[in-house]
């Protein structure tokens, strides 16, 4: 389906009122695409048509997206947070057959909001990840410190727009009695930090993998820059690609890793869709648009590759692979 005016493509950013949404909107507009944003928050970008809709957790979110698709002749929908991605993936048929959706399919999308399930899935597929558990697996902070080799990061188990974490090194750093299983305990990994932008085409098309390294300058500012060419970076790239395959993800994704003291890349977090560092790789937009222009609806072509998560999360925390 194309815009009735001049054959112009029309994109709808679901959950677009975010920093990534602003950057992506500007990149799409620069490529001659008309952009609409649907979010509980208005997207402050010139030339973007803003539509305030219920939050992605609300039952009214998906029907509102479907109405916007019909009303504004949208031909490509791009969810920009994990909950919106999950909703659009599961309810893809509600949007009609004439619209492309940039999602990996309902199976892979179903777990991406839950870092515990993502960790278990990666562990079951042999991807190297930090030791992990939920607070109910452990009696107290001292037990967590022992299991996590002396220090761990306490993170939100469920993905939100906020990416906060607390580093715990002593029993006095944390009151264990205040925690519930909305948190994830993850062993701290020191070493070089990377964000890898990946595009895995569902059914042919162009692949893309770009490795970004994060370094801290003397003044404390974090600098993110592209790196390529040596064996260390090639191994980071290989592990990122294995990660998206293990999760069954297609289309764009972002993998956060650290390189351990022996050089082993360890996966810390994964974002399905356009991640926080994707604006630094503008060619990702071109690859996604090219892929959809060639193949039409690219949603449920590849399904969840299986691999259970049976047993408690503590069992998965017994050691890294």
Automatic annotation (TrEMBL):
<dbReference type="InterPro" id="IPR036291">
    <property type="entry name" value="NAD(P)-bd_dom_sf"/>
</dbReference>
<protein>
    <submittedName>
        <fullName>Carbamoyl-phosphate synthase large subunit</fullName>
        <ecNumber>6.3.5.5</ecNumber>
    </submittedName>
</protein>
<dbReference type="GO" id="GO:0005524">
    <property type="term" value="F:ATP binding"/>
</dbReference>
<keyword id="KW-0436">Ligase</keyword>
<dbReference type="InterPro" id="IPR013815">
    <property type="entry name" value="ATP_grasp_subdomain_1"/>
</dbReference>
<dbReference type="InterPro" id="IPR011761">
    <property type="entry name" value="ATP-grasp"/>
</dbReference>
<dbReference type="GO" id="GO:0046872">
    <property type="term" value="F:metal ion binding"/>
</dbReference>
<dbReference type="GO" id="GO:0004088">
    <property type="term" value="F:carbamoyl-phosphate synthase (glutamine-hydrolyzing) activity"/>
</dbReference>
<keyword id="KW-0547">Nucleotide-binding</keyword>
<feature type="domain" description="ATP-grasp">
    <location>
        <begin position="119"/>
        <end position="304"/>
    </location>
</feature>
<feature type="region of interest" description="Disordered">
    <location>
        <begin position="297"/>
        <end position="321"/>
    </location>
</feature>
<keyword id="KW-0067">ATP-binding</keyword>
């Amino acid at each position: 389906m194309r815009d009735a005016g001049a054959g112009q493509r029309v994109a709808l950013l679901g959950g677009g009122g975010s920093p990534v949404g602003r950057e992506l909107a500007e990149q799409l507009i620069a490529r001659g695409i008309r952009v609409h944003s649907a979010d509980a928050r208005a997207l402050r970008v010139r030339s973007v048509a803003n539509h305030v809709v219920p939050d992605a957790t609300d039952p009214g979110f998906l029907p509102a997206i479907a109405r916007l698709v019909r009303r504004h002749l949208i031909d490509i929908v791009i969810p920009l947070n994990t909950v919106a991605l999950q909703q659009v993936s599961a309810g893809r048929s509600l949007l009609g057959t004439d619209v492309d959706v940039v999602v990996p399919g309902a199976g892979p999308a179903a777990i991406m909001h839950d870092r515990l399930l993502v960790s278990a899935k990666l562990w079951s597929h042999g991807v190297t990840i930090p030791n992990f558990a939920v607070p109910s697996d452990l009696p107290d902070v001292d037990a967590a410190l022992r299991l996590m080799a002396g220090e761990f990061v306490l993170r939100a188990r469920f993905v939100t727009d906020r990416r906060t974490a607390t580093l715990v090194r002593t029993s006095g750093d944390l009151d264990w009695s205040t925690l519930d299983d909305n948190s994830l305990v993850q062993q701290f990994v020191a070493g070089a930090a990377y964000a890898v932008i990946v595009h895995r085409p569902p059914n042919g098309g162009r692949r893309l993998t770009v490795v970004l390294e994060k370094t801290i300058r003397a003044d404390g500012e974090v600098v993110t820059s592209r790196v390529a060419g040596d064996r260390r970076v090639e191994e980071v790239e290989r592990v990122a690609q294995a990660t998206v395959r293990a999760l069954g993800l297609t289309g764009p994704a972002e993998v956060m890793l650290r390189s351990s003291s022996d050089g082993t890349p360890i996966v810390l977090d994964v974002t399905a869709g356009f991640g926080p560092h994707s604006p630094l790789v503008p060619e990702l937009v071109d690859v996604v648009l090219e892929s959809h222009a060639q193949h039409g609806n690219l949603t449920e072509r590849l399904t969840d590759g299986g691999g259970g998560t049976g047993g408690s999360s503590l069992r998965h925390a017994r050691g890294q692979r």
